Amino acid sequence: NSTPEILTIPIVKGPMGFGFTIADSPYGQRVKQILDQPRCKNLAEGDLLVLINSINVSEYPHQQTVQVLKECKQELETII
């Protein structure tokens, strides 16, 4: 059994977003797909989003998490 690891990963928002997509899971919002691997180098598909810029999104529904991501200006700090 592997123990979940919490990481702080800064990701810079580009003109088309952050370079990853998210999807619902039984445990919250997970990274569904990495679209820009160089920008998301420490992020992996299946990672669970816990905090976005100090906002706890662990129990947020999908649309609310998407809104938090949209409101980020430049550098997104996500703890997964």
UniProtKB/TrEMBL annotation:
One of its GO terms (cellular component) is cytoplasm. Residues 8-80 form the PDZ domain. It holds the Pfam family PDZ. InterPro entries: PDZ, PDZ_sf. SUPFAM superfamilies: PDZ domain-like. CDD domains: PDZ2_MAGI-1_3-like. Signal peptide: none annotated. One of its GO terms (biological process) is signal transduction. This is PDZ domain-containing protein.
